[in-house]
Write a structure and sequence with these properties.
By secondary structure, the chain is an all-alpha fold. It has 8 helices and no strands.
């Protein structure tokens, strides 16, 4: 397996991890206002950082994989990253809430599909998942 393919595995696992962490940080909230205003915005800011990471990692994924999985709005994902990074004070919390609640689960499913169909290095994937950083997504060991 080439180093680029290995890196794609890491980018995809990182995206899945970020999505699951965002879900963990937002599951107690019923709407964008409570999400924004609780815990001195700790959950909101953590989720923004994770959305930024999703956008950054998605930009690194090989273009052949992106072309094959063109149901993913790759440019919009990196666009969200750019807004968070460069227009932080102008971010609309309702849009962030909608991204989290509408778009992340389908993205996660596609990322898992990519892992299942594009990579045959199960040992490497399982080795990555042993890290404490990914302990909350150990379920991927079973799915792959």
């Amino acid at each position: 397996m080439s180093k680029n393919k290995d890196k794609n595995i890491i980018y995809i696992i990182s995206i899945i991890s970020c999505i699951d962490k965002i879900k963990l940080y937002t599951e107690e909230f019923k709407d964008h206002t409570s999400f924004l205003n609780s815990n001195d915005q700790l959950n909101y800011n953590a989720s923004l950082t994770l959305l930024l990471t999703i956008g950054e990692e998605s930009k690194k994924i090989d273009s052949n994989i992106k072309a094959k999985f063109n149901n993913v709005e790759w440019e919009n994902i990196s666009g969200v990253r750019n807004i968070i990074a460069h227009e932080y004070l102008g971010i609309n919390p309702l849009k962030v809430w909608n991204i989290i609640n509408i778009y992340l689960e389908p993205l996660k499913k596609t990322m898992i599909e990519i892992l299942n169909t594009e990579f045959d290095n199960i040992e490497m994937i399982n080795e990555i998942l042993k890290s404490n950083f990914y302990k909350h997504i150990e379920y991927l060991k079973i799915e792959i």
